[in-house]
């Protein structure tokens, strides 16, 4: 008896019937497609087939699509792995010229992964989900289906089951409803009212995009920054609510957001969007909105190589100009020696000396050491030209020198990666951005620059920059530099400068999950505020808030009145000392010559 029971159990367990192909209401599918065709035309019909779909019904549907609807079809099943499927957007399909058909039985089938992969960046496509007639039509079963559709961010959806048509809305929570086949529009229209939908995201310090301050009167924590203001205004305009997930976290003024952790949360599906704008997000990690700004990413370097004030006298003219003027003095002296009347009775040495002093005085636009009686017309014309030349030359020189005395004059600064290596200027970078930095550098400079990179966390980098640590250079985008440079807008002597050693021009937008439902409406909102100039307005007002909160401060290195001291006139003393030495040598030479003449 025991043996018989064992055999019966074995026979029952070994018998595994093959899954029966589900019967779909193809008449309803064709009716819905006919209604769509009567209102708007489409060209492509991608068809996704689950493992329990009758192939005969599908073949009949494809023939009907080709002959009656005159559209092409593209069939996708589970015979090929999902990651090997190319997105259908690469086959000239888009959300406007396609209607997708999806045949499935449960929410756990592999065909869902193929649907997600194939319709990458095509989430607004019109999607018709056909369920088999024998599938449960209970509220719980349909709710699970719509939650799966919402998980993959499909909003433009119709679900066909038996003779019923359903659609759904995720705002403020997932709920589905019946649809009449003759209703217009048939698919749920795009909405600008999110009906109080809650967007959850953390908020941390990321000056100037997002930062936290305390209201001095109420002590309430407030969030500022053009990235936060844009995001909040978008949610307010679309009737949505922002929930800050780390509202009780105590963040110091030197703390900074860890964007690698934020991106990881988006990849893991724990976060749908971040209010922290960031550079390009790789496709396999997520997506990003329309760019808030496209800014150059260059090195902020300390201002060095200040030129001493005693050298200002030489700066108005370059080296070749000084040599040209020196040659001009000798040339003018030679010309004056031939046309100057009244020096016929002077010795050759006297004429050379007087003509040299005369040429020099013409250049300097000062009184001539010689007196001319009854000058010739030729002498008058030459003297007039030299007077005009001396006036123009000295005027330009004085104007240029005056401008130098009212500003800080510096020499050659860091303008390229080669200059960075030559000056051995260390660069303070975030740990996770060091590899990105080296990817934008020419290959033959990688070894030299890699030794200059100092990796720190984001908070240490911001602390060093806010503390005006001039030991390092910092890679920052232009919009960050424009914010931080407001600290030295009234400074006589700037601390940092934005160099020409750049690492590209990254796109800065909001990172979000792939095919996020907020992308289209958020991108349109960003374009509108850019056109109205709100970003620049928020940029300036946020600096005032950051200054009151202690994040930034105005540099007060105003250079007061400085008298011309001995050091400032160092070059003049050198000229005077050289002149005295030359005079002594000439005097000794003349004295010796005179004594030699008397003895002879």
UniProtKB/TrEMBL annotation:
Major localization listed first in the record, in broad terms: membrane
Superkingdom of the source species: Eukaryota
Signal peptide limits: 1-22
One Gene Ontology cellular component: plasma membrane
Protein's cellular compartments: Cell membrane
Topology in membrane: Multi-pass membrane protein
PANTHER family recorded: IONOTROPIC RECEPTOR 20A-RELATED (PTHR42643:SF41)
Name the record gives this protein: Ionotropic glutamate receptor C-terminal domain-containing protein
TM helices/strands, residue ranges: 320-339, 379-399, 571-589
Keywords: Cell membrane, Glycoprotein, Membrane, Receptor, Signal, Transmembrane, Transmembrane helix
